[in-house]
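EI: anyone free to look at a 294-residue chain?
SC: sure, send it
EI:
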Amino acid sequence: MSTHRLTRRKPWWIAVVAATAAGIAVPTAALATQSSATQSSAAQSSAAQGSATPPHARPNAAVGAYDDTYYKDALGKTGPELKKALHTIVSEQTKLSYDDVWDALKATDEDPENPANVVLLYTGRSQSKDGNGSGDDQWNREHVWAKSHGDFGTSVGPGTDIHHLRPEDVSVNSTRGNMDFDAGGDEVAEAPGNKADNDSFEPRDAVKGDVARMIFYMAVRYDGEDGFADLEPNDNVDNGSAPHIGRLSVLKEWSKQDPPDDFEKKRNQTIFDQFQHNRNPFIDHPEWVAEVWK
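SC: here you go
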């Protein structure tokens, strides 16, 4: 550091020390100005050091950083305007094939305590990544937004969007089938904590919010463009093949009851960094659920 820079900074801290020693209150504005300048300098230094790596490629970047970049066109909006802005933002993505989904899920849903395993959505069981398939006790690809609700199947697009595809036990996946989500029913024997009746499925408490936010992502991402149906949650549980899924009021409540945890946040980041390069905005900003669906 040059002598000139030392001379410029010296009076400020000497004045503060002297004032403090004399029992004189230091003006808050003066301290705030210095703090702001220090933070700005640190931010510029950090930016200079990381300038070779774009923000979206930094897996440990704070979500707040995306407000000035990824989400900048959504900030300050609400209702239909917010939904439209988020649709435009998240529609910029890399699309996967249905075969690609297998390998993607092995990364997005990796067990943080055992990298050789994935964590299954409904059962919560940690199972070998190599144990995927269609046999008993294997895991397969669960479409949280049931693929028959809008009849998109496994087509590239909604049928392969890993923001709503999760690993799940084959038979438990079959039990859920294409049912809507709602509270109530009898406990699923193979997946304690989950419930099902003749027209709805209730996931275990630890992933209720995850399920809700996946549904909300799909409704924002797929709005009738790309040759696919306009997906939208409603308050029914008998939607069949219509491009709707319920129950909206319950999903909104689940999102509040079960906020995003570290696993869900890491999953969102992995999808962004390694695969689709788009984000689920309701994981980054859960408060936007109430802003879009008032």
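EI: Residues 1-62 have pLDDT under 50 and may be disordered.
SC: 👍
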